[in-house]
Design goal:
It contains 12 helices and 9 strands. The chain has 283 residues and is α/β, with parallel strands linked by helices.
Length: 283
């Protein structure tokens, strides 16, 4: 858990791990990235020996994330932001899922989205197969960073978080890790994800969108085996809502791009069929 000037929600975030998890065999690494508020005092107020607090000069989120993974003594790393909340069964569910026959290198889950007034916002259906996950990565980041548990060796082989992907460093990492092994998506909502005016996605929305679009194009090239111009066309089609797509454009994608997907699954074909039906019946 990296944190920079995160005093507002920090206690709730920390205590969701230290006090409320059904799975208790963990170390909790908190990286204080040069906070100037009471973040340091809040972290130091806990005496639980599982909590390891590191205070560093402010270097930014990517440096703090990579540092936290580097000092971790375990091989499985669970992530959480300092303004989110892990629900009680989260770590136990992630830990159990790692024993799946697919031998995953990363596990993620659905979230409860909560805005500042406390209202819950519905989330999109979570991809479960590698094929649909790769396809969705061609136009969006379908994984919430605060829900993920990944294997440290796969993280290292993928190159970790990259500074040039800042604002969407998790999206870039998932694209590189997906080439190394399978992910598991758990349908359960295991994290309460807070959307508020000070979150990175709100403060740096335009910059984040620009980096996300660049990485989505890269995923179109990589996962759909497309050249630059075709990748851009595929991205623009996928990023539209079904009712806004032209039939000829969608037909081009189905005929030209979908057959070239690196991985295929019934779930991926079902998603393509549902998108086609929504396009046809919204006319």
């Amino acid at each position: 858990m990296p944190v920079w000037n995160g005093e507002r929600y920090l206690r709730e975030a920390v205590e969701s791990i230290l006090l409320r998890q059904s799975f208790a065999d963990f170390e909790f690494i908190a990286v204080d990235d040069g906070s100037a508020d009471s973040t340091g005092e809040i972290l130091e107020s806990y005496t639980d020996p599982r909590l390891r607090v590191f205070r560093r000069p402010h270097g930014g989120l990517v440096e703090a994330l990579n540092f936290g993974v580097a000092v971790a003594r375990a091989q499985w790393i669970a992530r959480q932001d300092a303004d989110d909340v892990s629900l009680p069964g989260r770590l136990e569910s992630l830990w159990s899922a790692r024993e799946s026959k697919s031998h995953p290198i990363a596990i993620h889950s659905d979230v409860e989205r909560v805005v500042e007034n406390g209202a819950h916002v519905p989330s999109a259906a979570l991809p479960k197969s590698r094929a649909l996950l790769a396809l969705k990565m061609c136009f969006q980041c379908p994984i919430n960073h605060s829900t993920v548990m990944f294997h440290k060796s796969a993280f290292e082989r993928a190159g970790g978080y990259l500074q040039q992907e800042y604002y969407a460093e998790d999206f870039g990492l998932w694209g590189r890790m997906l080439e190394l092994g399978s992910f598991i998506g758990l349908k359960a909502k295991l994290v309460r994800y807070r959307v508020h005016s000070a979150s990175l996605s709100q403060v740096f929305g335009d910059a984040q969108r620009e980096v996300t679009h660049a990485m989505a194009l890269r995923h179109c090239q990589k996962f759909l085996d497309l050249k630059d111009a075709e990748a851009r066309r595929a991205f623009e089609i996928l990023a539209q809502s079904p009712r806004d797509r032209g039939w000829q454009q969608w037909q081009w994608f189905l005929m030209r791009c979908a057959p070239r997907a690196r991985w295929k699954s019934p779930e991926m074909f079902a998603w393509l069929a549902s998108q086609t039906a929504r396009l046809l019946f919204s006319r």
